[in-house]
Amino acid sequence: MPEREAEDSVIRTPLPCPILIHTQHYIYTSSSINIKFSMARTQDEFGQIVFQISVPQTQEAPYHARRPHSKSRTGCLACKKRRIKCDETRPGCQRCQKRAIPCSYAPDKKPDRNNALTSETSTNQLAGIAFSLSLRDMEDLVLQALEADMKWNSSPLKGTRNARSLSVVAFQQFVNASTEIIGHPSLRRVMKTDMIRVAFASPYLMYTILAVGILHLNRMSPGGGERSLVESYFWQQAIRRYQTALCSSVTRENVDALLSTCILMGVMSLCPERFSPTDSWVLTNRPEDMNWLCLQSGLRCITSLAGPCLSESIWAPAFKETHKEESQIYGRPVQQGRAGFDTDLADLCEIDDCTTKETSPYYSPLRVLAVIMKLEKSARNADQCTTWVGRLEPRFLALLRQRDPPALLIVAHWMGLMCCLSQWKPWVESRIRSECVAICMYLETSPDPRVLRSLRFPADACGYPMPAS
Quick one: signal sequence residues (predicted)? Predict the structure, then answer.
């Protein structure tokens, strides 16, 4: 009789499924563990969409006794950890292939003490979109990555059972659900595979992933005091370590972790726990309240610093694919003129047939906006529209800090467009819709009829009732 392996409770990444769209959302697991979220959709006084779910407690994986076996001293790390015989097939043994888990072998030479975690985890190849981890293995890997950081070892959260379990739930939520918001398959594939591998050897990226996962849960089901505390702690640790990492040069060793963290870090500013139109920099007149918008340009800064390292990054193939699609959408870039622009916006920005991006800070944002406003409403195009905010240059951002009406109208049009795409980008309900309302409130008393006409689309899109003309 062939040897029977002990059954593990396995958490698997699902096939792509809608998130924050339907009235119920599931995190798919094995038959022994099934977590279901019942979600209600309501509106608050500012017209923001609020999602509420109930999150039942998960159960511990059941214990199964293993049959005795002969030892394999040169087997893979996964089999050694499970204490089962390994067939020692390279690069991946048959048991790991059967369980669809990463398979790696101990290095021939003794690894450097400082790179022990990297040697053991960064060589794990999470091939394909779907991969599996037992509950125990996943908890061990997540906590192992965190414990590489001394702050976690001294954290008051470390010793509590709930904090440990919430770390695993947050990781599971990120892989199974948060990544599904990403419409582009190549970007989503990196987030589900190579980026996770990098995170096991990079504490600040792991903290960021856990923070995004727990933030996702908290925004869907607000009011959890303990989860909010854990979210705050994860973001605090992620930001501190990320800032330290940014002080060093971008190298082949850290470029993947830096890029991955930068891509995810914007989630925090786009999805605050509570936000209303009166919190917008437009109405508070505090320039620092606009920092969330400046943060979205961070990826462009890191890619420019990465230089030749970028071509060897885990993100290189995905970036190349998205760049190819952008080239098809935008075609040969127009260098000057107002063709295709909204007439009132072009007039307000004083753009004529001779205007170029060098002569006007409004030109590039308007040129890209004119293209994406005409795209068909779809999940893939919603991703393309999202990238607009990351293209904003410093001189345009400076105009926004001054609450320049033409600049505010341009941003309001993008925000209105994102409100129209909220079916695929539900995160706009956390901040973008309220920011759009704030701009409408600020500009609605303008004596310029061109401003009021240009304000009509964003006001309708975000649900702000404009006064009768």
Answer: none
